[in-house]
Specification:
heterodimer, A: alpha/beta, Rossmann fold, 2 domains, 34% helix, globular, B: mainly alpha, two-stranded antiparallel sheet, 13 helices
Chain lengths: 486, 322
């Protein structure tokens, strides 16, 4: 088959940290090619280099048999390369249409841009990705799943023949994931070659033709998915065998730690449930169903319009977006970890860094947190390690109830296992855990019960032993959801 | 990598400061005894004394800017404090002993200044109106208050033997002024680096939303930050009144800009979260040495401003290269 893109000897350093040292990668026409590896393996860096948003120290890139240089996103656009970033690179205060035409070489600018002109240009691309909202809708007001479609429409409108997608399903629920797969299939048959950066094995096996595995900045190998096995890929990724632990048997549940009666906020309608010590309660629901809003209400961040929250003890909240809501990116690992327990770290009014380090050390081991030093800024860490810093913050705080909002979003397989283990340990230590996840297998693996939200209402609570993906999906898409949608 | 960049920026800041000092020495006029005027002890302490007022204001301004805020009202608060301390010395408590009288006068001026800061902080923290707008309003309103209180007049603190003159004689001493700045600098450095409050200041500036999710006391911290800014401006006002022998409702115009300049030359970002007290001290001294150098060489004061403008941009640009 014809190769459309070849990259060899790609290297990239960030200060003293080596992100890529000798990566190579080949993309064939009309294939969906998975780029996989643990966090920090360099797959996002490689994708960003191809998209021109990161400049490599060294790289030999050949497109259609011609050696090219990609020094900027504009270069990439000229070469027909588009990228969908995990943290979308859209302008939230501009409209969908404006987002599509801005910086777009294929949009013929006039001195005065008329909305109709933009609309005519955008319509076909929005239809192609199945985006129902208007061209004039503000991007910031759209749910994240639709924002992603805007990003894809933009890449298409830039006439991308090579589409790089960095974890496109990490913030989508299953129905949106299905639509995304349908779209990827369509694009593929239209001759677009797709690079699919992901951690999710089931997705890779469903939609990808080949997979290239990166580890520690080097290409380990490329395999045909048709003949590959999951454990083989995981072994290539981590360099060792990785056992996916089964759901542990839990000791009996303890006393009631949280009771919510008819909780109503701007986004929630009469939510009632109870949580016991030692219990892990899952929260499933489509994007916009009110999962994060439940956490915000419990944590006291949203105004409560009705109902009551009875909690014996304290509540901690690990927010959904670790970069925007969780971490102080320019502060150190240590400072981020102890952020919520600072009063405990002082003597005579002064902080004691030694005391802070003493508190973090056992946790860093328990979480398998990898960093060069505690003084390193969290900006330099991989997504999985960043999430672990945030977990460390709440483990140090030691609340009675911990609300974990999609804690495994965009982190690698090994880090996910660490998170599952921590959830198990928290339950065993008698905490009440509420776990939000977009991945149903994850909820089935970790939880005792799973509640399903839809349009701000609680539509079902299942015992995890009898719940199935089908049942949960059915409850997540009940008619109330359709009604609640504008 | 980031600590390295930070160290580099610090090194560049140090290098820029060393550069200006070397230049000042090189082009310094030579005194009759052959020594360089710039290096004479009297001149060096003059520099310190001259930067002390702006320096004191800039300490708290650093905290404000670290939280991604700004305080434009510091110059007006300084004027209010000069007026209050002069009024308290010349018109109230005439029967009190000198010591108590002076102490009370300073306390009134500084407390009122801190209160203005608290009000700034309260409005900013509760309404979420941008600090620029809130403190701009305070800058106008407090200036008006100072002028109204004094009926637009300067309140003279004489040179006689009364309590007001006694106050001026003590608090215009170089050692007192420089000592106040040095003590403030040490205290504010310690608070930022080694207390829970200081950590909260940096955290809020780095990511306010995350600070909210971490359950940090955002409102309280902000109110304190602006209170400290008011308090230090008031203290600077007391020193100003002593130095100039008067309460002056027109004092401190554009001081906020000098303080902000010292902070940003010191490497603190206006967007918050990054920077610190040591940088601000270097920035303050940098401005002081620059002014002194130009004045020793009899540079026209208008030209001085133009040169300063260029140097401010250069000093910040140098630190960006990292």
């Amino acid at each position: 088959m014809l190769s459309v893109l070849q990259a060899v000897k790609v290297a990239k350093h960030y200060g003293g940290v080596c992100a890529l040292k000798n990566a190579h990668f080949e993309l064939r026409a009309g294939e969906v090619h998975a780029l996989i590896g643990e966090n920090g393996a360099g797959k996002s860096t490689l994708a960003r280099i191809l998209a021109g948003s990161t400049i490599a120290d060294a790289a030999n890139i050949v497109i259609d048999g011609r050696t090219v240089t990609v020094q900027s996103p504009l270069d990439a656009q000229r070469l027909g390369i588009g990228m969908i970033y995990q943290e979308l690179d859209l302008f939230p205060s501009l409209t969908v249409g404006e987002n599509l035409v801005i910086g777009n070489l294929h949009f013929r600018e006039r001195t005065l841009v008329s909305p109709r002109h933009i609309e005519t240009f955008c319509r076909p691309f929005l239809e192609r990705v199945g985006l129902a909202c208007g061209v004039r809708a503000k991007v910031g007001a759209l749910p994240i799943g639709q924002q992603q479609l805007v990003a894809i429409a933009r890449a298409l409108s830039m006439d991308a023949r090579i589409l790089l997608m960095d974890e496109p399903t990490s913030s989508l629920f299953d129905d949106a994931v299905e639509r995304m797969f349908g779209l990827i299939g369509q694009l593929k048959s239209a001759g677009v070659a797709i690079v699919y950066v992901s951690h999710k094995m089931d997705e890779i096996f469903r939609i990808c033709d080949r997979a290239t595995v990166l580890r520690d900045g080097e290409t380990i190998g490329t395999v045909e998915i048709a003949t590959a096995r999951v454990d083989e890929l995981i072994r290539m990724m981590v360099g060792r065998d990785l056992k996916i632990a089964a759901r542990p048997r839990r000791a009996g549940l303890g006393e009631l730690v949280l009771r919510v009666d008819g909780l109503t906020t701007a986004k929630l309608r009469g939510i009632s449930f109870a949580l016991r010590r030692g219990e892990v309660l899952g929260v499933a629901g489509l994007v916009g169903a009110g999962r994060s809003e439940l956490g915000a209400a419990l944590f006291g961040m949203d105004r409560i319009q009705g109902g009551a929250i009875h909690v014996s003890g304290s509540i901690g909240l690990l927010p959904e977006d670790r970069r925007l809501q969780g971490l102080m990116m320019r502060m150190s690992v240590l400072e981020n970890s102890t952020m919520a327990v600072l009063p405990r770290m002082q003597r005579l009014g002064f902080l004691r860094p030694a005391e802070e380090r003493r508190a973090l050390q056992p946790l860093a081991l328990r979480l398998a947190l990898h960093c060069d030093s505690a003084a390193q800024t969290v900006m330099e860490l991989s997504g999985g390690n960043q999430q672990k810093v945030l977990l460390a913050r709440w483990l140090l705080r030691d609340p009675d109830v911990l609300f974990l909002d999609d804690p495994t979003r965009g982190i690698d397989v090994a880090a996910k296992q660490d998170v599952y283990r921590i959830v198990d340990e928290l339950a065993a230590a008698g905490k009440g855990v509420i776990l939000v996840s977009s991945e149903l297998p994850e909820l089935l693996r970790c939880c005792d019960r799973i509640m399903v939200l839809s349009g701000g209402r609680l539509t079902a609570i299942y015992d995890a032993r009898v719940a199935t993906q089908e049942k949960i999906m059915a409850a997540a898409t009940t008619p109330e959801f359709a009604e609640a949608r504008p | 990598m980031i600590p390295l960049v930070r160290r580099l920026a610090g090194a560049q800041r140090g290098a820029a400061f060393a550069g200006i000092v070397v230049l000042a020495i090189l082009i310094s006029p030579v005194a009759a005894d052959g020594s360089r005027v710039f290096l004479q002890m009297g001149n060096l302490t003059d520099i310190l004394r001259q930067v002390s007022l702006i320096g004191i204001i800039a300490l708290a301004m650093t905290y404000v800017i670290l939280t991604a805020g700004i305080d434009l009202s510091v110059g007006s608060i300084l004027a209010l404090a000069t007026a209050l301390v002069a009024m308290a010395l010349t018109r109230a408590w005439q029967s009190a002993s000198y010591g108590w009288h002076i102490l009370l006068a300073i306390a009134v001026a500084v407390a009122a200044s801190a209160l203005v800061g608290t009000l700034n902080g309260l409005v900013i923290a509760t309404t979420r109106i941008q600090p620029f707008i809130v403190t701009l309003a305070a800058m106008i309103g407090v200036r008006g208050l100072a002028k109204w209180l004094t009926d637009n007049q300067n309140i003279d603190i004489g040179f006689g033997r009364d309590v007001a003159a006694e106050f001026a004689a003590v608090f215009r001493e170089k050692a007192i002024v420089i000592g106040a700045y040095a003590a403030g600098a040490v205290l504010f450095w310690l608070m930022l680096a080694r207390t829970v409050f200081g950590r909260h200041v940096r955290a809020i500036g780095d990511n306010e939303r995350a600070a909210e999710y971490a359950g940090l006391p955002i409102r309280r911290t902000k109110i304190w930050v602006y209170t400290l800014s008011g308090l230090l401006s008031g203290l600077a006002g007391v020193l100003y009144a002593a130095e100039n022998h008067q309460g002056n409702p027109n004092a401190g115009v554009a001081y906020e800009l000098d303080a902000i300049a010292a902070v940003v030359i010191g490497g603190t970002r206006l967007s918050g979260g990054q920077g610190g007290i040591s940088g601000t001290i270097v920035g303050t001294l940098f401005m002081g040495v620059l002014t002194n150098m130009l004045r020793l060489n009899n540079v026209d004061s208008n030209v001085e401003m133009m040169i300063k403008a260029v140097i401010i941009v250069l000093a910040v640009a140098v630190q960006k290269v990292g």
